[in-house]
Amino acid sequence: MRFSRSIALAAMLASPLAVHSQITDSLRVGDRVRVRIAASRGTNVFIGDIASLSPDTLVMSIPGGKALITLPRLAISEVSLSDGRQSRLLTAAPHLVLLGIPTAMLATAGPFRGPHSSSLNSQRYMLLGLNALLVGRAISRTPPERWRPVYGWLDRR
Fold first, then answer.
1. Contact 63, 51 (CB under 8 A)
2. Which ranges in the chain belong to alpha helices (H)?
């Protein structure tokens, strides 16, 4: 019984490694890529889909069918494949924590008493509304795209 549990545990721990080792380091027509061009002044970045690929050139189509760009392999400093977008929850988590503490403090505070109580209560509700807007903005914002560098095509001789 213990032996089968240890095998199951080893299989669960090794499965992410097996999945990661199956990721290919090659480019295919239609892949979404980010290409950095080594320039004399700064670095130029192009994002688009691969229209065609040869040993010496990469032809990219800019999204929206605006143009095709032919890039020689010797001018390219980095090629990265898109791995999709990051999780909304993971990108909003720091905002939720930072804004959640003051929101909880404002929401759980007792009502104010005294000559300025209506003004203070109004300010509290305004701050709660602003915090809710900031949290909503953090959650609704489109998360950034993840990129995985690919070296197989670029390092070919």
1. no
2. 2-21, 88-108, 117-140
